[in-house]
Amino acid sequence: MPKRTTLTFTSEDGPRVDSTRLYVYHCKYSGRHAFTIDVDLRKMPRRRTDGAYVVNTDEHTVKLYTTDGGVKFIKRQNGTVEKQYRLNLGQLPIAYKSDLNSNLLYIMDGAVTTYSNQNARRAGRLLVPPCISRSERSGLVEMRLELEDRSHRCTLSRVTADVVRVHVTGLMANDAVHEELFDLFAKVLNVRLSQLDIRRAKSSRNRIMTVESLTPEQIYERLREALKKQATERAEKRQRRHM
C-alpha cells in the first residue's frame, strides 16, 4: 500500500495567492481531491504528444494530494521512449513529470475535473454532473455516453462528471448498439422509445443521447436509482453464492 504524500510546488519569488483565485480539481473517476492550483488549467499550454496540460511550477503554486505511481515508459509514435514519473490517486495516474527535478508538471488529459458531487452533498443538495445538460440549441436534455463494448450484457456502469458509462454487448463502432442503448435507457428512465434519440460523437466510443420530457435532475436521479439497484442485486447474488 503506497504511502500517502502531499507535495507542494511553489514559486519562491511569486506573489501571495488569493484564496478566492484558487482552483480545486478532483479525479474524474473517483471524485477524490487531486490538487489545488492558482490557475485555470484550461489556460495552460498542452503537449502535442498526449494533450497533457503543462504547468510550470516556478510560475504557479500547486498543492497535490497524490501518491507515488512509479515509473512508466511510454513509446511514442515517432519511436522514441519517454520516461514518466507518475503521480496517482489510488491506482489511477492523474499527472507525471519527465524528471523529478524538473519544474514542469504534466496533468493528464481527461484525468481531472472541477466538478465534485461530494461538495454538493455536504451542502445539502445534489448537483447534476455536466454530462447531463440541456441543449441551448434544441432545449432538450442531452447525455454524453461512453461505451464499453463486447460485454456479456447491456448495463449502466457509472456516472462521472463527463460521461455516463455504459457496457454494451455489440461493437461500439456498429450502429446496432443503438438499439441496446434505446432499450436500456427507456427502461432506466421510464420513458417511451419515441422520447429518445441518439447520435454519434467525435469518438466511436461516445454517443449523445437526447431525452424529451425530463429535466436533467430527473434523469440523474433515475440513473442513480438504477445504479443503486444494480449494486444491491450484485450484493444479493454474492450472498446467495456463499449460502
TrEMBL record:
STEEP1 domain mapped to chain residues: 19-119
Gene3D superfamilies: YggU-like (3.30.1200.10)
Pfam families: STEEP1 (PF25809)
Entries under InterPro entries matching the protein: STEEP1_dom, UPF0235, YggU-like_sf
Domain of life: Eukaryota
Protein's name in the database: STEEP1 domain-containing protein
